[in-house]
Amino acid sequence: MSERKKAVDPRRYSREVVDGPKQTPSRAMLRAVGFKDADFSKPQIGIASTWANLTPCNMHINELAQEAEAGANAAGGKGVLFNTITVSDGISMGSPGMRYSLVSREVIADSIETVVGAEGFDGFVAIGGCDKNMPGCAMAIARLNRPAVFVYGGTIRPGGQRRDIVAVFEAVGAHAAGKLSDRELAEVERTAIPGPGSCGGMYTANTMASAIEALGLSLPDSSAQDAVSDIKRSDSRRAGEAVVKLVQRGIRPSDILSRKAFENAITVTIALGGSTNAVLHLLAIARAARVKLSLDDFTRIGRRVPVLADLRPSGRYAMSELVAIGGIQPLMRRLLDRGLLHGECLTVTGRTLAENLAKVRDYPAGQDIIQSFETPIKKDSHLVVLYGNLAPEGAVAKISGKEGLQFAGRARVFDGEEKATAAILAGKVKAGDVVVIRYEGPRGGPGMREMLSPTGAIMGRGLGDQVALLTDGRFSGGSHGFVVGHVAPEAAVGGPIALLRNGDPITIDAVHRTLEIGVSAAELARRRKTWRAPKPYATHGVLAKYARVVSSASEGAVTD
């Protein structure tokens, strides 16, 4: 193990809470929840669980949290389990409730920071299993800068006929087009989600788990394990043990979360064909870590990193099938050997990334999930940052190459997701249209809803290569087709997307990385004079508070 730091006081924070006569009341309270005399002299390790019985992604996490607690105790710490919230994107998708999804990322980060800070934990484990609680956990780790390990809850196994949640959304579109009967739709509904675990493709959950492992915040292989497996339980227990070792050695997130570590995370995300949400979340985690990162870094790195994984939504395979052939560690070893990863970056093992990968074996011969550098899925990044008179601060496109690299069409403008989805399902959107869904940005939504319902409807109706979708909202990792999100400035603050009208010509060019409206500057200026900001969706409560303070999507849509 690399000697990176000398040991420090392993009870730096808990000492202030439980030592001495003055803190007798604290000890009295803790005895009531199970502390014994010996526990007060041990490092206290918080176990942040995102367990909830409202989504398959998190329904099993309490068991993993108990394993992490046991691991911390076995290593000489005192584990203390606590919960934070989660919400289900898959359940709230396409409804007003989806406005709370991105908001929950901030609430989760805030709540973990609050508990760990208030209770004086010397280190902690954070366990996440759904799209927003994973970056929320990582943001809390970065903010607190106390020894910590992230554990991924694990991927779901495929449902009947290798279905997953995206198959359900696309079945809705197929049903609307008359391609699927009521009975067939019901059969998809009943068989697609077989049990615990996060959505099964390289969607946002598996993307962020992989990115966080590449950052160095989770143990090797944590991102590529089935949710229901002995190895995932072992991973959780070992995470509890690892945090105690980090506390004893004084290794903090700031020792791990360097700019090079974020470059590693971007590289792995691209190679896996990951979700556009990774752009938003990595910007937010970097902000919490006080590391300079921008949209342009994704472009710079993306020019030299190919897409190698043939994974859903654009590809053929599920995450559990990648797990079966070795997960992402052999891919990371290939990237390292190619000079595309910074091997010197420290990780939560106490070793460098290169040391972690030194004995990793390559994938078995004959597998075709991970392609070679000579025959990539795409020779450069599928995450394309676009600029132009329609997105002066940038927009993020997900271009696999299968839908083409350029799209020109006429705007079909909708103020809000519901109107757009209804029009698509009713057959009112035609080939050549650029569907524009606006007032769905961080502030205008508020909450930057994901557009899986409209993209699923487009794919289900067979228009995936004939229609583009443009929004100041964002996309589920399950969305595919010619899609552009995160358009900034957003409509709610008067960005150019607010000035679009039906029939305006729009050109999306992934080669030259431009997003342009074919309307003169003079005409846009005239339209701006008559534009008025709409009334806010919420005037009180968490949505209103979020809308008042949230930053642009180009900055990660953060609230601190």
Structure description:
The protein has 560 residues and is of the alpha/beta class. The chain has 3 domains: 15-157 and 195-357, 3-Layer(aba) Sandwich (Rossmann fold), CATH 3.40.50.2300; 158-194, no CATH class; 383-555, 3-Layer(bba) Sandwich (Glucose Oxidase, domain 1), CATH 3.50.30.80. It has helices at 15-18, 24-32, 61-74, 89-92, 99-119, 133-144, 165-176, 182-191, 204-215, 230-249, 253-256, 259-271, 277-289, 295-302, 319-324, 329-337, 353-357, 417-425, 452-460, 521-530, 541-549, and strands spanning 44-49, 78-83, 123-128, 148-152, 383-388, 391-398, 406-415, 433-438, 468-471, 482-488, 505-509, 514-517. The strands form 2 sheets. It has an 8-stranded mixed sheet with strand order 5-6-10-9-8-7-11-12. Helix 19 (452-460) links the parallel strand 8 and strand 9 (468-471). Helix 7 (165-176) crosses helix 19 (452-460) and helix 18 (417-425) runs parallel beside helix 19 (452-460). It is globular. The model is unreliable at 1-5 (pLDDT under 50).
List the helices and strands and how they pair.
Blueprint (H helix, E strand, L loop, with lengths): L14 H4 L5 H9 L11 E6 L11 H14 L3 E6 L5 H4 L6 H21 L3 E6 L4 H12 L3 E5 L12 H12 L5 H10 L12 H12 L14 H20 L3 H4 L2 H13 L5 H13 L5 H8 L16 H6 L4 H9 L15 H5 L25 E6 L2 E8 L7 E10 L1 H9 L7 E6 L13 H9 L7 E4 L10 E7 L16 E5 L4 E4 L3 H10 L10 H9 L11
Parallel strand pairs: 1-2, 1-3, 3-4, 7-8, 8-9, 9-10
Antiparallel strand pairs: 5-6, 6-10, 7-11, 11-12
